[in-house]
Structures are given as C-alpha cells and as structure tokens.
Write a structure and sequence with these properties.
Blueprint (H helix, E strand, L loop, with lengths): L2 E5 L13 E2 L5 H15 L14 H4 L3 E5 L1 E5 L3 E12 L2 E11 L4 E12 L2 E11 L4 E5 L2 E4 L4 E4 L2 E4 L4 E10 L11 E11 L4 E11 L2 E12 L7 E2 L3 E5 L3 E5 L2 E6 L2 E10 L3 E11 L3 E13 L4 E13 L12 E10 L4 H4 L11 E15 L8 E15 L12 E14 L2 E13 L12 E12 L2 E3 L2 E17 L5 E17 L1 E7 L2 E16 L13 E2 L13 E2 L7 E13 L6 E12 L8 E2 L2 E2 L11 E7 L5 E10 L4 E14 L2 E10 L3 E14 L4 H7 L5 E3 L2 E3 L1 E11 L4 E12 L3 E11 L5 E11 L3 E4 L3 H7 L24
Antiparallel strand pairs: 1-2, 1-3, 3-5, 4-5, 5-6, 6-7, 7-8, 8-9, 8-10, 9-12, 10-11, 11-13, 12-13, 13-14, 14-15, 15-16, 17-20, 18-19, 18-52, 19-21, 20-21, 21-22, 22-23, 23-24, 24-25, 25-26, 26-27, 27-28, 28-29, 29-30, 30-32, 31-32, 32-33, 33-35, 34-35, 35-38, 36-37, 38-39, 39-42, 40-41, ...
C-alpha cells in the first residue's frame, strides 16, 4: 500500500494547512474530497512534473508532497516515511528508503538509497541532512551526475551552504562511465571543490588531471566557469610543431575585463626561435567594436632580430549600433595588418593575419548615407546616396624566388553614389576621385605610372517586369580624366567618355512533372543580352584597376568584359542561354540544374586587356565564343555532383573544366574529389575525406538519427571509433603534391584524440610542415594545439565529432587563476 501526503505550507501560517492521506481503495473517495478541498482553498494543483525551482517569495509558498509505503505524521510537527519515499517541493525531488521531516526547523533527513534531483543535477548516496527551504545541509559519500553534460563524479561529502553554494570534499569528475570495475579513462581529482552558481564559478584546490591512469596536469588551485560565461584565468596550453620553428608551447591567459571588453595574453616558448608573446584586446562599445592583436618575438634566434606583427580592426557609427545597416549615420571602419619582415608569411604561415598571405592591407573608410528630395517629382520621390572617403594601402612581402607586382594603393579614394526612381525610370550615378600610388620598395615599381583619376559612371534604365517576363533596356556612360606621372617625371593628362547601350531580357516557364521516381517542378529560364558599345582608343591611358573578367556563366551576362574603370570593351554582341532547374516542391530543394550560354560577336573587338600598356592577351576576334556548360545534381541518394565546362568549337576541345563529386551517406562520412583544368596553365586533382576506418562503427542511418558518432563504453573505460580525415592537392602539371592535410581522430565517447599533419607550399621548392596534437576531454577541456579550424576550412563536409558549447571560444575551458 502506497501512502500519499500533501503538505501545504505558507510563510504566514507557519504550519500545515491541510493533510490528505491516501491509503487503500476504501479511503479513495474521502481522500479525493479532502485533497480537492485543500487544493481549491490554497490555489495549488498537484503535478508530478518537476518544474524549475522558484525563487524568493514563490519558493517559500511552494507545497510539500510526500509519498511512501509507510507514513506517520504529526500535523504541524513532523512526518516520518519509510519505503519508496518520494519528497517533492517545487523543483526539488528526494527519493530514499527512510525519511523524516521536522516542520518547525524545516529539516529533512534521508537514509538508505538517497537520490536528490535539483537544477538539472542528480545526487545519490547513503545519507542526507537538509534544511529544505534554505537548501542547507550535507550529503555523505554522494555520487553526482549532470545529465545535460553527460558527466559527473563522486565525493566523500558535499556541504550545501545555501541554494547557490556547495563544497565537495575529495571529489572526482569525469564524463566517462563510472559504474564498471575499470577506472574512467580520464578523471579530474581535487581535494575540495567549491561551486557557486550565484557568480557561476567553481574553485578546485589540489587538482590533478589523470588520463589513462597517468597524471598529466596538476594545479594547486584552479577556477572554472559553471556554464558558458566568460571568466578570467589560464586557458589550456597549446603545443605546435613545425619544421621551421620547432616545438612551440603557449599558455594563454584570458582576462575578462568587463562584459564588453576582454584580453588574452599568450606567452610562448619556441625551441628554435626563443621566447615570444602574443596579445589580443577586444572591445564592444555602444557604437564601436573591434580588436587589436600583437605578436612579438624580441630576439628570434633564427632570424637574429626582433620580429613583430600587428592586426587592428575597428568599425563603428555615430548613431545606432555597429551592426545597424541602412540606418542614417556616419559609419567608419579600419583594418590594418603589418609585419616586421618579408619572411613572416613563410615562418608563420598559419598566423591568420590576412586572406592574402603576401599582400597585407591597410584599409580605412568613412561613409555617410543620405537622401535628397526631388522637387516637382511627386510625394516620396527622393535620391538615395552614399558619400565616402577611403584609404587603401599594401605591405608587399616579396620572396627571393618569386616576386610579384603589387596592386595600386588608393590614397585617397573619395566619391559618392546616387540612386533614384522616377516612375518606371531608374537612375544611378557614381563620381569618384582616386590618387594611385605604389607601395614603397615594390620590386615591380619600375616603369609603372602613378597619378590621379576622376571618373563618372552613370546609367538610366526602364525595367519592364511581368509574370514570367522581364526586359531591362539600359543606357550607361563611363567617363574618366587622368593626370599621370611617369617614373621619369613626365606628366600626361587625358580624358575619355564611352557610352554603352544594352537590353537584358528573360523569361521563366514552370511545369510539374514526374522524374527520378518523384513529383518535381521544372523551370526553363531563357535569357538574352544585347550590348552595343562603340570603340574608343584606350591603349595610351594608364590602367590602375582594370583586368579581364573570368569567363563564366556570371560574367558572360555583363556589358563590359573588364572589371574596374580603366578599360571598357568595345562590343556589338548578343549573349544567349538558358537555365533549367528541377525542384522538389515539398522542400524547395534543387534536385538538378543545367545551364548553357554562348556569346556571338556582331563585330570584332578591338580593345585588348592591358596592364601598363602591355597586352595581357589578344582582343576577341572569335565570332562565336566558347560554349559554357554548367550542371549540378543531388538525384542520386548520398551523392552531390557538379561540373562546369568551357568548350571551344574552334579547337574542338575543352579549354577549362571543373568536375566535382561528393559522397556523404551520413554524418561524419564524406568523401569528395574535384578535378580542375585550365589548359596551358594548370591541371590539378583535389581529394578530401572524413570517414570511420576502425573500431565500433554504427550504420549511417543510426548515426544520422543520433546526429553524432556512435561509441560504445566497456567497463569503466571508453572505447570507440577511428576516423581518417584529410585533403590532398596534386598538380598534374608538376607531378607533385602541392598542399596536403592528413590526420586521424579517435572518438572514445568521453574523450577525443586528434593528430593532424599539414604541409603548405611557401615557394617553388619550399614548404612548411606542421604537426598538431589535441586531446579533448568531453565536457571539460581541450588540451594541445587546435586543428579544428584547419579541418573545417579545408575538408568540404567535415563535421565536428562534438558540437561546440556556446559561441564564445574561450568560455568552455578550465581557467586556473594567476
């Protein structure tokens, strides 16, 4: 027979308001009547669902529910329970073999198989003494578990100071199985652990981290966050190994200065180069945000000099927030990357300072949006505009075996852009002044002109759009004035103005059909572009920013074959093509896409791509251009295929091609291969993969349902799966591997080991090889060098074996104090 007691407490009454005892079936009717009356009078409704614990006044008015097989009570004084005891108050649940509750002192004692559930944590042990409302007391020999983290541990004793603070003595913590005869694969042991949820901080004294029974790290005292909140302290050490610097050991210190500011200081020891330090400061103000980072080697023993690197990024606005787009206000931004010497990119290729490792930018900009009314054009008619002043500079890192021509600097770049609508008419304009210079010491500076350019771009169009049809006639003007200075000191001035007329038209048809064993929607989208631009001689004009556009399905539908302002292709041509898509109407996914396009010259082109007066290639004389073909599909389950081909009818062969395939039957299983050909320039094959190769591996369907790797724990240790990861680029022209990344990941369930080797080419006969090791203790920390960014950036389809906790990279690690 199970006995049930509902004890309703009130801080004003300081006693039991109602007592209902539920015995056998003979008392069911009376019990229901008594309990219902009590609940109606108090406003409480019994519920077996555990809710988040209330706070403050709400906590003091929560009812107490007590269930047991044997129960004796003295109203307003005490209650004794024995056998399958369940005590519940708000979000607190206590199960035990024996239980007593003293009402005046609010003291609960439990013994036997005691189990406590509170705030997502589960405690179990032989004996508990607790003042319920204040959550003050102790738990003897408890085991604790955090189900959301999949981790837990044991302690000799836990003392609860209040609802926020607790101290565990002789505690252990791990995310490995803790029930078998074997010891966990990894365990953190501490003489004492103090947890304070009020400040989201934990402190461990006398902590030792053991892995596979061997102590690997020890701290007299360490603190750590109880969640994803930021906290000052030391981060896990990292170890990097490469063939240019040797072994590098870094121990970062993170300083949580304020909620909107932080800093990281990273002392480093590099076996071949000596001591170094990195520092980064990040800030997020009301209207400004940015970061400053500095790398410093005061005495590089290999280079025999001091070496430094700087990166500063900043953006803000005079009103609103930095992320606000389209709001009025002055916007400004800065991006500066500088290093001390030309060899920095070779010696530290993974520093991540710039997307172009040998061309480091200095960018600054101030921008202001504005609107101007159009008098007499009707209500709401206005001109939208953008005024700006920008600066662009470069630091060029030349190499002894391979130098290159630097792009021009702009110091300054000042201009404005305008857009307006007047009925069906669309107007656009741009006026801009640039002063073009070359970086000091540029190896390719000799013979290249410098100077100023004022250009104006204007256009007017009358778009016509109906359902399934659009036509856009457009008239454009590209005008520029040059003041050029040669290296000899000679000065030349010139102007030119080039009009252009174009009509862009297209249609869209759609129909349902049955294909590939399912119902799909097919589209057919033909498109025509007519362009007529007269010839203007431009070979004697400087070329600061123009280059021939890459010939593809995007650029073929533009009215100028050159990017930039300095070159305008003379054209009298028609471009035609179509795209057809097969779409799954239930999901909107594109199952198959096919595209084709070709250009026909109505007259030969005379303007050739040029740089500083030297032709980069002949002008177009081929009446019928190369045929562009594009296709991609996911029709075959688990396969993704794509191809792009440029075919020359004159030579009857492929000029350029890209063919790629990816096989992904489930999470953590992907293999991709890509073939690239640019005839006469390069030909290469790229292969990447992430695949389980050994150990206990679940089926792709099971892994897809679990959305994580399947691992099996045996005894008290963990065992799991080996994964091979990698990417290899092979040049068929040079018959050699250019860049490669090969590694292994071992997922043991509660820990993950990673070993990755990366080789990057830094010259015709030079390469940097780096080794990365990482031990991830799931639910605790990552130790060693971090290869995850390298894997995600280089392997298409790569997935982390465990999802990141939170979005801030420094908050999910342990952080011992200074």
């Amino acid at each position: 027979m199970l006995t049930h007691v509902t004890l309703l407490r009130c801080c004003a009454c300081a006693g039991l308001l109602a007592l209902a005892i539920k015995g056998d079936a003979a008392h069911a009717a009376d019990t229901a009547t008594t309990t219902g009356a009590a609940e109606a009078s108090s406003g409480w409704v019994p519920s077996m669902a555990l809710q988040p614990p209330p706070r403050g006044e709400a906590a003091r008015t929560q009812p107490i529910v007590l269930r047991a097989r044997v129960l004796s009570t003295t109203p307003g004084v005490s209650a004794m329970a024995e056998g399958d005891v369940e005590f519940r108050r708000g979000g607190l649940l206590i199960n035990a073999d024996r239980f007593s509750y003293d009402t005046p002192t609010d003291l609960a004692r439990a013994s036997g198989k005691v189990r406590v559930v509170r705030d997502g944590a589960v405690y179990s042990g032989p004996a508990l003494e607790l003042k319920v409302q204040r959550f003050e007391g102790f738990f003897l020999e408890p085991r604790f578990d955090f189900p959301l983290l999949g981790a837990g541990g044991r302690a000799d004793r836990i003392d609860f100071a209040d609802s926020n603070r607790a101290t565990a003595l002789n505690a252990t913590y791990t995310s490995c199985p803790r029930d078998g005869p074997e010891a966990p694969a990894w365990v953190l042991k501490a003489r004492s652990v103090v947890l304070d949820t009020g400040i989201n901080e934990g402190r461990a004294e006398g902590a030792v981290l053991q892995f596979l029974g061997t102590p690997i790290l020890a701290w007299p005292s360490l603190t750590f966050p109880l969640g994803d909140q930021r906290k000052s302290g030391w981060l896990p050490p990292s170890i990097n190994i490469d063939n240019r610097s040797g072994v590098e050991v870094a121990v970062p210190y993170y300083w949580n200065i304020a909620p909107n500011r932080d800093a990281t200081l990273v002392p480093r020891i590099i076996t071949r180069r000596g001591l170094g330090v990195d520092a980064e400061f990040r800030y997020l103000e009301l209207r400004d945000q940015g970061s400053v980072s500095v790398d410093w080697l005061p005495n590089d023993r290999v280079a025999k000099r001091s070496r430094e690197a700087l990166r500063w990024t900043h953006e803000g606005r005079s009103s609103g927030t930095p992320a606000a787009i389209g709001e009025p206000g002055l916007r400004y931004r800065v991006d500066v990357v500088r290093v001390s010497d030309d060899d920095w990119w070779k010696d530290f290729p993974n520093a991540g300072r710039s997307f172009t490792t040998r061309l480091l930018p200095l960018r600054a900009a101030v921008e202001q949006d504005f609107t101007l009314p159009l008098p007499g054009a009707g209500a709401g008619a206005e001109v939208r505009g953008l005024a700006y002043a920008r600066l662009l500079g470069w630091q060029v890192l030349q190499a002894s075996d391979s130098s290159f021509a630097s792009p021009y600097q702009r110091s300054p770049q000042v201009g404005a852009q305008l857009h307006a609508s007047l009925g069906a008419w669309q107007f656009s304009g741009e006026a801009e002044f640039n002063r073009f210079t070359l970086p000091g010491g540029s190896a390719s500076r000799a013979g290249r002109p410098q100077g100023e350019r004022l250009h104006v771009l204007a256009g007017v169009s009358v778009p016509y759009r109906e359902s399934g049809l659009w036509v856009v006639p457009r008239l454009a003007l590209n005008a520029a004035s040059y003041d050029t200075r040669q290296e000899s000191g000679e000065r030349n001035q010139a102007t030119r103005a080039i009009p252009s007329f174009s009509v862009d038209a297209g249609m869209a048809f759609e129909r349902p059909l049955q294909a590939f064993g399912r119902t799909l929607s097919q589209t057919l989208e033909p498109r025509l572009l007519y362009v007529n631009t007269p010839f203007r001689a431009q070979s004697q004009l400087p070329n600061y920013d123009a280059a021939a556009k890459d010939f593809n399905l995007g650029s073929i539908y533009t009215d100028n074959a050159f990017s930039g302002v300095d070159r305008v292709a003379d054209a009298h041509q028609i471009t035609g093509g179509f795209t057809s898509r097969f779409i799954d109407p239930s999901s909107g996914a594109e199952v198959l896409r096919v595209g084709v396009a070709q250009r026909y010259l109505l007259r030969n082109q005379r303007v050739a791509p040029q740089t500083d007066g030297t032709p980069d290639g002949p002008a177009l004389q081929q009446r019928l251009s190369d045929l562009l073909l594009n296709a991609s599909t996911t029709v075959i389950p688990s396969w993704s295929l794509e191809s792009a081909v440029q075919y020359s009818a004159d030579s009857s062969r492929t000029v350029r091609s890209l063919i790629g395939a990816r096989y992904s039957p489930g999470p953590f299983r992907t293999v991709n291969a890509t073939y690239r050909l640019a005839r006469g320039l390069n030909e290469q094959i790229e292969v990447g993969w992430q695949w389980p190769v050994a150990g206990i591996v679940a089926s792709p369907a099971a892994q897809a349902n679990a959305n994580r790797p399947a691992v099996v724990a045996r005894g008290g240790a963990c065992s799991g799966t080996w994964y091979a990861v990698g990417r290899v680029n092979y040049s068929l022209n040079d018959s050699r591997v250019t860049d490669s990344l090969i590694g292994l990941e071992y997922d043991a369930g509660c820990w993950i080991g990673r070993f990755v080797a990366e080789r990057l080419s830094t010259g015709r006969s030079e390469a940097t090889t780096r080794l990365m090791f990482q031990l991830e203790l799931v639910g605790f920390s990552r130790l060693g060098s971090n290869p995850l960014r390298v894997l995600k950036d280089n392997i298409p389809g790569y997935r982390l074996l465990r999802e990141e906790r939170g979005n801030t990279p420094r908050t999910d690690e342990w952080q011992p104090p200074d």
